[in-house]
Amino acid sequence: MNFWDYVSNRHQQLLMDAFQHASAVFQCMVIATVIGILIGVLTYRSEWAGNLATLTTSTILTVPSLALIGLLIPIVGLGVPPTVIALTLYGLLPIVRNSIVGLRGVDPALVDAAKGIGMSRTARLFKVELPIAWPPILTGIRVSTQMLMGIAAIAAYASGPGLGNEIFRGIGSLGSKNALNQVLAGTLGIVVLALLFDAAYVLIGRLTISRGIRV
């Protein structure tokens, strides 16, 4: 059976796996984005706190994904929980780092001007600093998403959802007539999802970043 015949015969299962893969990455990215920006907001004013946040999240990223998921299985079990925890942790570094860099890059004169017209610290953060820092933050989110697209495939090791199941089935049946088709279908599916997500981020950037900042 050639690849396209395999895809045609298995298209319903492949679409379901792709949906689960995209859903898992999207949900984990939402959690990682909220946590990452919060960490950046809490630490960017302090040199040591910002360095500690970056060091901690970068250390998490050095742990092999298969090892981390394996360590989580005895604690939270198989399936969705270890997948969500692992992907969220892995998605933090680019968002935390870019949040800190973006917030520290805001022109102090703009902050002083906002303070001068009576804005509170919270108002300055949400109306001045975060909007100006949003482009690098969004870049961090895009980088995290591309990373998680690939890492999410490893979640199949813990019976997690997504296209990784297709890849693992193919690897587990090497030598069979459909082994290569399974691996190829899972891999290409992840690539297509990554491109679609990135295109969505480009659109979000155009809608949420003011023309003056883009220029």
Strand content: under 5%
What is the N-to-C succession of helices and strands?
HHHHHHHHHHH
Q: What share of the residues lie within helices?
A: over 70%
Mean model confidence by pLDDT: 90
- Secondary structure: number of strands: 0
Any idea what the radius of gyration is?
Answer: 20 Å
Number of helices: 11
Unreliable stretches covering 5 or more consecutive residues:
none
SS content category: mainly alpha
- What separation lies between the terminal Cα atoms? 52 Å
Broad shape: elongated
Taking the sheet with the most strands, its summary is:
none
Describe the structure.
- The chain has eleven helices and no strands.
- It is mainly α.
- Helix 2 runs antiparallel to helix 8 and helix 4 packs across helix 5.
- The protein is elongated.
- The model has no long low-confidence stretch (mean pLDDT 90).
Indicate the topology.
Layout: H1 3-9, H2 11-43, H3 47-62, H4 65-76, H5 80-90, H6 92-104, H7 108-116, H8 121-151, H9 164-172, H10 179-208, H11 211-214
Helix pairs in contact: 2-3, 2-5, 2-6, 2-8, 2-10, 3-6, 4-5, 6-8, 7-8, 8-10, 9-10
